[in-house]
Amino acid sequence: MSQRDLDLEQVLSTELTAYPPSMFQADGQMRVATGKATLKKNLQVEVSQRLITSLTSMVVDVSALLWTLEWPSQGTVDTFISVFKVWVNARLLEADVHLCFDRYFEYSTKSSTRSARANATRVHQLERKTPLPALDAVLKNSANKKQLNTLLCDAILRDDNFLQHATQNHQLVVTGENDMSTQVSKGRKSPCLDLASTHEEADILITQQAVHLAKEDLESHVRVVCDDTDVFALLAYYYLSEKLQSSLTMQSPIMGRSCIDVKETARKHSAIVPELLALHALTGCDSFAATYGIGKTKAIAVARKGYTQDQLGKPLANIVEVTEQATAFMGACYGITIPTSSMTKIRQKLWAQKTGKSTAAPKLCSLPPTTEAFEQNVRRAHHQVAHWYSGTVP
Questions:
Q1: Would you say which domain of life the source belongs to (predicted)?
Q2: Do 87 and 141 share a domain, yes or no?
Q3: Residue 382 contacts residue 322 (beta carbons within 8 Å)
Q4: Where does residue 16 fall: left (phi above 0), alpha (psi -120 to 50 degrees), or beta otherwise?
């Protein structure tokens, strides 16, 4: 067949590989958004910790905290549990403490991300008297980490002497695998009905509890101890959508990192915060593939130009309208602003631009996905953002 007979549009309407290379690796793993923290860095408004007084509540991402605590080189799992208890006891001297543990559901939307992060370590049978494996062997293996979370929860909630001493002045709330959180005050345990949730993601549980505390007392100062970009986006969105007024900050568990003023962040970026979750999901998050060459900085710039994403994640939205909005947004991220509902046409336009500037064929991963592949990815993003939008619903 001669080049003259080749229908380039028809050729580019396929991925030209067995997988969409712009969104997936050759081994079938989705492209993880390695630069997703850029979203937080570009939008965060920092505040000096010296200006923060009278902290009332602290909501802790235990998954992030575990990486920062001293990990004994020798000893048993009980040795690390003691380290964890010391940290919790110290925080309870300052304020109420909410501990949010990861949950692990089968066939979860987070499974692909956990798989990508996992290492090849073996699954241990952890008990309190078991010799403590290396940090990476536990925290980078979902099965081992799940066991450790269970042991930590049990060790805290079954140690009546610890709870009696630690919760004299402030409350402790523990959210683990069960739908119902457990609240402890002056050593007395009770179910926390107003924080019950069936959500899996700790990101949503953390946000739900922070928003609840901020609503409960307008004079409160709530600090979220977490370093996750998903949580940052959720807090900014809900602070604005729920019209919160109280002080809310986000602080990394790693000493020395900046403290983020969520209130000022939401106020400063109020033009794009209502669609921040949609923007974040569509350009790559923990459960959604990133697109090669499309980062958070570029997405923020496109959002500021007025490309809306107000249908993504809305349960009653028409999926055709959702996809059309997403196509226009991603097309603009690629620098193609032609009015079209076809990602394949954007792909063809970008091919023409790239080959017009160079005789070398562009990398396939640098081209947008085809319409068919992109629509499937949009449906996944739609599902994820719908979960986020239901964050305050049990």
A1: Eukaryota
A2: yes
A3: yes
A4: left
Q: Three-class SS of residue 301?
A: helix
- Domain of residue 281, residue span: 3-30+273-389
pLDDT tens digit sequence for 356-390: 887 788 899 999 999 999 999 999 999 999 999 99
Q: 25 and 52 in one domain?
A: no
Domain count, the chain: 2
Q: Of the candidates 252, 268, 284, which is a domain's last residue?
A: 268
E-state strands within the chain: 46-47, 57-61, 96-100, 172-175, 181-185, 188-192, 221-225, 247-251, 259-261
Same domain, yes or no, for 281 and 207? no
134 lies in some domain: yes
Rounded to a whole number, what is the distance in angstroms from the first to the last CA of the chain?
Answer: 60
* pLDDT per position as a tens digit, 49-102: 776 778 999 999 999 999 999 999 999 999 999 999 999 999 999 999 999 999
Return the C-alpha torsion angle 257, 263, 267, 273, nearest 10.
80
CA–CA gap between residue 310 and residue 329 (Å, rounded):
11
Confidence at 288, pLDDT banded by 50, 70, 90: confident
Distance between CA 118 and CA 25 in Å, rounded?
16
Q: Which three-class secondary structure state does DSSP give residue 312?
A: coil
